[in-house]
Amino acid sequence: MQSPGEPRRRRSLTVIDGAMSMILVLLVLQMWLLTATLESYLAGHRGVATPAAILSGILFLGCLGLYGFVHGADRAAR
């Protein structure tokens, strides 16, 4: 028999899994951006570095926000 809080805990775990998947996608995108930017910079295109650094910072803040969301959801599930 399930405890009264079991459906809520299961729902929270589903939310955490989804957020962690989004973090993974953002980190892979950030690694791709780093690779493309470094290749372009080494090819002599110096103007690419600043916009890429700004976008990388935005991706980092997105990951940080999702981490805070996961932390809060985990705390609520317990």
N→C terminal distance: 19 Å
Mean pLDDT: 89
The number of distinct β-strands equals 0
Low-confidence stretches: none
Tally of helical segments: 2
What is the share of helical residues? over 70%
The biggest beta sheet is recorded as: none
What's the domain count?
Answer: 1
Dominant shape: rod-shaped
Write the layout of secondary structure elements.
Elements: H1 6-42, H2 49-77
Structure commentary:
The chain is mainly α and 78 residues long. The chain has one domain (6-77). Helices cover 85% and strands 0% of the residues. The chain has two helices and no strands. It has helices spanning 6-42, 49-77. The longest helix is centred in the first third of the chain and has 37 residues, at 6-42. The protein is rod-shaped and about 60 Å long. The model has no long low-confidence stretch (mean pLDDT 89).
List keywords for this structure.
mainly alpha, 2 helices, 85% helix, single chain, 78 residues
Provide a short characterization of the protein structure.
This protein is mostly helical. Helices cover 85% and strands 0% of the residues.
